[in-house]
Design a protein that fits this description.
Number of strands of chain B: 2
Shape of chain B: globular
CATH architecture of the largest domain in chain A: 3-Layer(aba) Sandwich
Oligomer: heterodimer
Distance between the termini of chain B: 41 Å
CATH architecture of the largest domain in chain B: Orthogonal Bundle
Largest interface: A-B, 28 and 27 residues
Shape of chain A: globular
Distance between the termini of chain A: 79 Å
Strand order of the largest sheet of chain A: 2-1-3-10-4
Order of helices and strands of chain B: HHEEHHHHHHHHHHHH
Number of helices of chain B: 14
Number of domains of chain A: 2
Chain lengths: 446, 322
Amino acid sequence: MRKLSKTAVFVLVLTLVMGSISGLAAAQTKTITLYHAFTSNTLLALRNLINDFQKENPNIKVKAEYVGDALIQKLQAAVAAGNPPDISWLHSGEHAEFARGGAIYKIQDFMEGPNGLTQEEIDDFFPIMKSYMEYNYDGQWWGLPVNATTMTFVYNKDMIRAAGIDPDNLNIDTWEDFAKVTSQISNPAKGEWGMFIPVFSGGMSSYFDWFFRPFIWAAGGKYVNDDLTTVAFDSPEAKKAVQFFYDLMHEYQGGTISPGAQAFEMGKVAFTLEGPWSIPGFNRLRFDWGAALYPLGPSGERFQPSAGEPVVIFKDAKNPDEAWEFIKFWIRPDNMAKWAITSGYLPTRRSVLEDPLYKTEVEKTPGLEIFVQGLEYGFESETTPAYNRVVDIYANAVELIMNQKIGIDEGLEEAAAEANAAIAQYWLDNPEEYKDLMERLPNRNK
Amino acid sequence: MLGNIPQHHCEPKVEEVFGVAVNTPQRRRWSQRTEQTIIGYLCLLPTFAYAAVFLVFPVIFSLVLSFRRWPMFGPKKFVGWENYIRIFQDDLFWLGLKNAGRYTIAFVPLSIITSLFVALLLNTKIRGINFYRTGYFIPTITSAVAVAVVWTFLFDTNYGLVNDWLTRLGFERVGWLSDPKVAMWSIVFFSIWRGLGYNVVIYLAALQGVPVQLYEAAKIDGAGWWAQFRYITLPMVSPTTFFMFIMGIIGSIQVFEQIFIMTGGGPMRSTYVVFMYMYDYAFRYNEMGYAAAVGYIMAVLIFILTLINMKVTGKSVHYDQA
């Protein structure tokens, strides 16, 4: 009887101790919520990432919520209700509005905090990534980039070989070299062209803007002037970019603006512009393909389109420190390598390229290395007031020029006048935004 | 006063409508008529609510919007007639109006002629008539976006089926959607094809309403096929033609979906219609107030056009029934 009761007491005590330990553990488990709009491969990458994270951090539970296309509206509503997620992924540039509204933490404070990143780690991000994380020009990190993307040339090696050029020793270093190569490949009679020049207006003009603006920079030009009140795409330098594509099409007969759907895939154009998202589909191509960086412009410089997508931490987050822990895990080179391989996005840090897993991926995927290299030539795009309006006007002008409906000088000058009027109206309507921008402008790159 | 009029002659009793007695206590709280009225309105309530939320409210709210600067984000303020003045000063608005006008002038007559022609064919007694009738109606009930995407493929300059046939027959390729001179005609063609089913059904109903005696009498008098069509069919279906004319104009000026999907307003703004302009300002340039003002200008314009139609065209419509 006494023995029994001793055992009973022991069991009782043990139960109590175990209970309090597990209770303690339960109290320490914190849940962070993450909003995203990832689908298919990226969603898979996110699941893997969260699994890996929870193996290392059993006390932090990550709850991922797919919010989809209405992400911004949902976030606005959640912020207004004082109940935002801890973390959200955002499209490139979308954090500015939340930063202006005071809804997100300046993530730089976490980066420089006790559990932060070393200067070496911060410098490891591709330089262009930082400018995407700034809130306008303040030179501070407001989000941390997890996805990078770019566009560059991809080419059909078989078509190039058929034109008597060695595709593995292409000389397309300068604009002129590039125009000559495309000219040699083109065979208008057979409906075959050196390059598809994607001049899109209307709803697609922002796409056109993204790939085309680097050509203006490479010519030494600008799209918008520094004080953000007038466009600069009618300057002599910026005109050179349009002149280049005009000549490529009409002098060299090297390209077309309307090759038809799927022209690259069907072997009708040798060069086209693509993003890394197209790489998986290229497995099905019936020809060898390669990728090449943009040629050097008349200024002797090279620029590539680029973008970085941030994750941000909300001010009303319930567990901001745990949220930071997760983001820190996400951007760790070994994790980012897995993330990039599965999702198909490009890594945002250079050291990911040294990761053995990513190295293998680069070796077995032709062209991927060029896309990643392209990030080195990313350039901060000028803030463009009345953005859609202005890029519509410009794209429409370039379309008219390429179709020889109007001269280059006349077309671009008329477009500039129209765009300047639109910008003037925009600043008249949004004086606060202008003031805010101008206050930040001098802080640039501090 | 009204309560004294015997009502069962003109209005069904509640019991008759619902099949069972509804709330018939010993002593009526309200007169029968009041009760009927209340129940009637209660039955209408869902529809009223729908109309109020989705029709009346937007109409009033967009009028308020049209006098304001109303970005999606940022400060909103009253600007008086400024939106309207800016619209009238914008060349792009006039271009949109011109293109919508071009579309309307081409679409409305062609659409009416085609549907009347097809309806006449479908009104004959041939084998498998139901198959044809169904066939013509399918495009109308298929999602506009889906069929527009399909036609975008068919119209592709280099790989589209249409050009494939043309080149087989020895013709040159046509830039159906990429040639600024042709693109609007392709849109018109698509719209006629898509709207055909609906218009044909209306014409069929009208044709079947024409009394057979008229044709029989005409035949006895020696009228041929053309004379019968010209002097019987055409006048007898003229109310339908008039209806389609008015509805066609109202619809065409607002053409949007197919252009949005198939050309996006291009090439070189040759299909940039006024509703594309409104869409751009509302959803791409984030100027809701400005877009609302465009909407109101269009509403007034359509109202005036319809009034003119009623006065001018309405005169040649025969409403007499045999």
